Amino acid sequence: MCGIIGVTGRSDAVECILGGLKRLEYRGYDSAGVVTADANDLDVVKRAGKLENLVRALDDNPLASQVGIGHTRWATHGEPNDRNAHPHTDPSGRVAVVHNGILENYQELKASLGDVRFASDTDSEVAAHLAARELERMDEPDLLLAVRRVVAQLRGAYSICFVAVDDPDTIVVAKHEAPLIVAHADGVGYCASDVAALIDHTRDVAALLDGQIARITPDGVDVMDVDGTPVEPHRFHVDWDLDAAEKQGYDHFMLKEIHEQPQAVADTLLDRLNAPPDGGPARLHLDEMRIDEHELARIDKVFILACGTSLHAGMIGKLAIEHWAGIPVDVEVASEFRYRDPIVDPHTLVIAISQSGETIDTIAAASHGRDQRAPVIALCNVVGSTLAREADGVLYTHAGPEIAVASTKAFTTQIVGCLLIGLYLAQVRGRMYASETEDILTRLQQIPAAIEQTLLLDGEVRELAERYQDTNYTMFIGRHAGLPIAMEGALKLKEISYLHAEAFPAGEMKHGPIALIEPGSLVVALAPAGHVFGKMVSNIQEVRARGASVLAIGTDGSTADLKEHAHHVLTLPEPPNELAGSVLSVIPLQLFSYHIATLRGEDVDQPRNLAKTVTVE
Ligand code: F6R
Asked: What three-state secondary structure class fits 217?
């Protein structure tokens, strides 16, 4: 995720900014930059790659000022390169901006500026142009007023910071759905996306709330709403150590990432509908689609290729594409696909799913398909990664960097991505009215709130983990969308707790696996509301009759039967549709594995024998 630190009122502002960016490195980034301001001009230095590249560039071109803003970028729009690194300025160099988040209406805003040249491919740059235009219109230029006017036009998620030559001691910041902290200590004003960046300077900070804007000067911080009415941010004292600050108070990155899922899913769903200029119905779009819609309309078969957790998301993708777009789909382990002779032709679509975009098996499998002239869509979390670059079309999951080895937020955003691809293919094949697509997308917007609600199960899940922490073998069972979630639950438990766990289609139990059940076995049954619910209840009865303890995952309003047959029931909120429900059902399983592993004293974030990105076969 991008990082921000701004400083005003220190003679060593640039060193202070670089120190802050260093503290934010753990969040992951692909470029870094800094801007300093004085009454004559703004100076920007930015470089793709690691912070060392920026430091070297600043050694060659030292900047000295009391005011500046630094940024580490995790690309969402545009390749990770020097040009797209933040800060961005307007063409006259009057205003500079850094931004975390996604500006949903940036194309509309760009169009409103008329014939203006943009120096980057980012959504963020438009904010600098808009602020400069506002300043130009004022007899007495006022950066705060200009930013208030700009913010009133922004849609999407942002923590955004501006400096301008007109008001060189001042940093103006605004927040909506992306964190932003402000502080003032010893005649210095600060802002940052994360307390970790400020912890060396002050521990008394204030978190802006959505819709708040702050003017930061060496004299203090004024917080207001978009109309300029003074408002109170959330003030707090940081008593965590640095390690905890990087994890934002969570004990592990995995837990932090589990809790980031509402935001990650919201970001993945953001900005997906384009209203065409001719006023026709809004159309769903993918981020970088270089495949002609007519070509996609002729697709008669899909291969979804991935590894591990991403493969499980792909299994939901199969259900979505077959259901909405009516195309047959095979989901295959990437390392197997590449060594056989799959029947692929130009009417076959390959969808390659990878969080990192660097998994060698998935990259090689996708090129095996492309060699046979199949178009390739990548569903990827890392902008500009190898898979994304080589694919013909890309949908990014916008989960932000995932640091824990065990994948959590990447998985739930991949499921959402798969649903979007299913809807997109239905759209290009004319299988759905535009209003239907829009209706489904609107209902999907309920998922982040439903995840928040599901996370409230944490206390109950921990109690279950305490009870079952020494269970040597856990069987996960599910049907339909519950099966990939059962497989993901088993994988999570294996990966971080090193306990044996396996998943089976619940209907297969009687064909063999039920022989493993004996008194004391734990069976986790995925039984959310839906068309296979009744069958799952029968499967639960079968395993219970053979002595298993059953933990069932059900949905609010349909758990009466479960409570009768399972020993424990975790109740999920009602999802917007059956497939989207899989995003909710995996969350108690992520928490269950997490708690079991921590109770057993395992290294949750870096489990043995595993690497975050598997770049070798
Ligand atoms: C499990 C996990 C792995 C990855 C797999 C593919 O928690 O993280 O199974 O899902 O290595 O990685 P990507 O998605 O980066 O291709």
From this structure: strand
